[in-house]
Amino acid sequence: MVEYSIELAEKYKLSGNNFLDWKVRMKSILTFKKLYALATGTENAEIASERDKLDPERRDLAFEIICINCNVKIAAQFSAEANNDPMVLWTSIDKYYQPKTIQNQTTYLKRIFSTHLQKHKLEETLNKLHENTRQLCSLIDDKTVKPSILLDSVVAMWTIRNLPEEYKTIGELWLKKCEIEKVTPSLKDTIEELHAYLVRTEEDDTTEKALAAQRNENQNKSKNRCSNNYHNPLAQHSEEDCWKLHPEKRPKFDKPIKALLARKSPPTISSFVLDSGATTSMVNQLEFFQSIEMKEQEIELADGSIIKALGHGTIQLEFQNIILTFSNTLYIPSLATNLISMTMFLRTHHIIKLLNKDEFEVIDKDMRQVVTGSLASGNLTLYYSPKVLSVSTIPDNIYTLHQAAGHPSIEYLRKMFPNRNIPQFDCITCSTCKMTKSPFSGNFPQATRKLEFLHMDLCGPISPPSVSGAQYMFKVLDGYSHFAWTFFLSSKSETKGILKNLIARIERQSNNKVTNIVSDNGTEFVNSELQEFFNQYGISHLTTAPYTPQQNPFAERGNRTTINKARCLLKDSGMDSSLWAEAANTAVYLENLTPSKNINFEVPFKRWFDREPSLKHLQPFGCLTIDLKQKLNGKFDESGNQGLFLGYGETHLSYRIMDPGTGNVKITHHVKFIPTEFPCLKTKSTPTDSESFILVPNPTDTSPIKTPPIVQNKSNENFTSSTQENPSLDQNSSGEKSNSIHKGYSWVPEQESIPQNEIIGDVGHPNNILTYQRRSRHHANLADHLSLDPKTYHEAINGPYSQEWKEAIKSELNNMANHHVWIPTTSNHNIKPLSTTWVFKRKTDEDGNLSKFKARLCVQGFNQKEGIDYSEVFSPTGRLSSLRLLLTLCHINQYPIEQMDIHCAFLNGKPEEILHIHQPLGYTDHPDASVFLLKKSLYGLKQIPRCWHKILKETLIAIGLTPCFTDPCLYYSQNREQPLWLFVHVDDLIFGGTWNATFKTKIKTFFKMEDLGTVKYALGICINQNKEYISLIQDKFIHQILTEFSIDQARPPMAPLPSNYKELKDLKDHENKITSSPPFNFRRVLGLLQYIVQCTCPDLSFAASFLSQFLENPKDAHYKALIHTLKYLSGTQTFMLKLGSNLVSHSKTEILGFTDSDWGGGTERKSFSGSLIYFYGALGWREHKQKVVALSSAEAEYNALTESAQDLAWTKQLIFETTNNEVSCTLHSDNQSAIAIASNPVYHHGVCMQN
């Protein structure tokens, strides 16, 4: 009998986009195993109980079958919450991938009715129609919707889709309303909505006539009115009831609220009127809103009529002198005039003042003019000009369309959108960025098929380089379709490989062969390798005459078009010129969608792919976006992120969005655009605005990388080329796929992008980033953290994030007051006070996310004089070996390990010297005092670490702990029967023992503490605990470094150093000179590597020690060796160091030492020594060059034994102090001669005997 497999092939397992097929196959498997009813919850309770008794493991089997047929990620996602219940697991997956909701049914209805059957792709379109219908049928459930309701909604949808053109908008709005309210559109409601719209339209036509009639009636009434102290006989009331004669008889009633121009009418103007009767502001255009909540509500007007507001939110208006924000503003599309509530101005202490008989102004409480307006129409009409328009006569939506399309000419814009009424207008951006020379006369032969002619040109070198380090733009254009591809190169030599790959790919796409290639005579095209390639595949290479680029007009003019579009996009959006690669990428994308005059105004996209392109998704480059968060920190956290639109992704309708907080670029479909908001323009014009956005720094900047800062843009005028003929730009190539800005990207519709994680964090020093062609893609895309932190007090309180910095300064001064750091004193000639300065820094968590703004007041300690202002400054620092021992001891004894942080630790120290400071900036509690006496330590003092360690030591001894003599930063309990161990690293305390809670209570009486709970992250190390062992890992920190240098995706080698590493020591200066632009700061990267080695990676000890020899003058070969080591690290970054598990020694009270030496292993005379100390895991290790020259391998090994014995003795003493237990030691070596010498300590010639 054939065994029926319960596991699907890998390609059929649930991957997220194959749910229906997976569900059918799973039903077959589960039915065969008689488990389908159990998994779906349809099994009778009695039958289920009986089957459970007969087969107790069947539920586990059903759960396992479902799990193994999902990919690893999905199985992990759903199985954790299912608690081994197959029904819960099956239901969770079904609801997640196929929720039977009205919204989903409506979505597939939309897809079905928006399907256009095309002659040349009929089969493909029908297959899509069938798939959408199949999905819709699978979502139909009697519990959610009856078939009759579904049929009714189908007819309603058909009605909406077939409305006349002038009613399309109301139909789309109705669908949107149904989607927001989560209801299925019914035919009855649809007809009522259309009827109401027709009634409103008829009322609008009669409104003016009614108002005119009312004016005439009022004029007639005025003839019969009474005046003061006079009764008109023609009036309709008696003399006794005349209010003019008897004012006391006038009835008292509330005057109804009226909006001056609040009447129902199609929006025709964008004027704003101050309305004294409006309780809130009302606008008729969606473009004004920064954020909006779509929620209908009825508004009653002054004439008693009802008008519907579709939503409310916050708008932002730019007037002559200021940008004003109005919250709780109503969105009423049918409002004739935009109304601004006068009450809102008056509540904020604004004053309305007449300038003359025709004009007025609004001034604030400081008598500064806010906005002006006109009285000419009888209303308070504000002077307002939309900021997004460079020509005020252009309607908002037309200019936004012009921006989104990449600033094409009016002729091309009309061709792209033939159904829009586009007027003639002048665009200043286009005029500024598109100045050209007179055209060259002459024609190029017209291609008759795809790939008959491929026109190409290499443009550059470009200054500044792109953020990915590219300096050349390589553009290829098909002569038949005029569809273009672009690539970005750091050197010309890359052209050959890119061109070969491109030809292979586009030939496969188009089912045509390349016949002719047209280029100039550059060596990147005219070389033996490409000539051999052309001859092999029968391709003719046509070159232009020298200095005659006009003979290749399509490539030359194509470059000019791309450059002009990119310039316009950068200038119009205010983006920094270092983002020109993104702008050029978007420009080429738009060129392929724009009708081309060279092919009779056909669209290149249509000619290449034989189908019409969609233009509905186009958006202005650099505009504000709101994209969906992939992960929420909390249930009530915001679900959206603000970002900047940087172009279009490779996949269908996906967008490239830059996170303003991290500089990270993601590709997503879930995004909302604010097409009239350009944050970078705002950052330029209003640098003090609290809402600032990150701008990518110039690639030549040499500052450290950190996460979330904001800086003003540099001028786009710096964007130049080395040639005046071709001022060039860069674009990303299709050869690489990434979520970050990177070299070599272009849009290829058929391909899918491969996302990669972006981990950003603090890895900086100001002199660590240098210009180089290997500059990291991710590195170049990040903003400079430290350079964007304020340098001075005035820069902080007047620049971006001023409010946050003020709060940080206030918090720091409060800390000073709480700790009684200083007292005011009188100044005299004997007092020489020290100056102070503010240091500002954004703090990030272990994931690189912005956590808080930190302001710290520091003394300028460099002005201190030794012997007067300070004496002793030494303060001990704990060894990482001691921390590993603490973790090991706690785990062996099953003690909980916890962590605490001391708030403002250094402010608790007391200096022994008498010190004075000047009054700090921002301190106003004692305005008359200019000098202050320091009672506590202040940051920046040279002796502050010593002062803090002294007070902390005294406190811990008072609590009941004793410092180890071997390591004064490791403490143990004075009561040996109640052990507790504590490790100190400045203000971080890591401890474990039998009285953790008591210790925390006691220390809180001395210092302000932050209880961090169970230790998880300390000193850049992730600490994970389980019953078997404790693991230390630095994968996030390592990945952050590898990503910075673009090594995270590199193939790791098998060894930490290259095979020829021994030759690196003997390099001659004339043989291997340093490159003019080093790839990175050698000293900094090696320092980061050394820290990783000391913490968790003993396997890299030799590599780090060996490369440290070349710190002073590294050559190219040394850089390559260090890159090789980093590549090795990329393959071991997930490895962890295990503590608390005795896998080597047979004794629980034995310390093991392992030592080795490499005498004769290199070309130099001194040997390297290596040692490792093992006690329930690796406690310590070191690798270094020996200080003396060994004359034999025995001597070299003996020297290594001596050094290892010292470490072994130190560890033994430390364990004895902390546990009061003796342990034995065993030292291992692989050299018998060295062992014999060590075992017989007598004089040996040539060996320096050491005790």
UniProtKB/TrEMBL annotation:
- Alphabetized GO MF terms: ATP binding; DNA-directed DNA polymerase activity; endonuclease activity; metal ion binding; peptidase activity; RNA binding; RNA-directed DNA polymerase activity
Query: Which residues lie in Polar residues bias regions?
Result: 699-738
Gene3D superfamilies recorded: Ribonuclease H-like superfamily/Ribonuclease H
Chain intervals for the UniProt region annotation (Disordered) = 685-742
**Catalytic reaction equation(s):** DNA(n) + a 2'-deoxyribonucleoside 5'-triphosphate = DNA(n+1) + diphosphate
SUPFAM superfamilies linked: Ribonuclease H-like
GO terms under biological process: DNA integration; DNA recombination; proteolysis; transposition
Listed A to Z, the keywords are: ATP-binding, DNA integration, DNA recombination, DNA-directed DNA polymerase, Endonuclease, Hydrolase, Magnesium, Metal-binding, Multifunctional enzyme, Nuclease, Nucleotide-binding, Nucleotidyltransferase, Protease, RNA-binding, RNA-directed DNA polymerase, Transferase, Transposition, Viral release from host cell, Virion maturation
Give the record's GO CC terms.
nucleus
Against PANTHER family, the record matches this protein to: TRANSPOSASE, PUTATIVE-RELATED, TRANSPOSON TY4-P GAG-POL POLYPROTEIN
- What's this chain's function? The aspartyl protease (PR) mediates the proteolytic cleavages of the Gag and Gag-Pol polyproteins after assembly of the VLP.
- Name of protein: Integrase catalytic domain-containing protein
Naturally occurring in which organism (per UniProt): Austropuccinia psidii MF-1
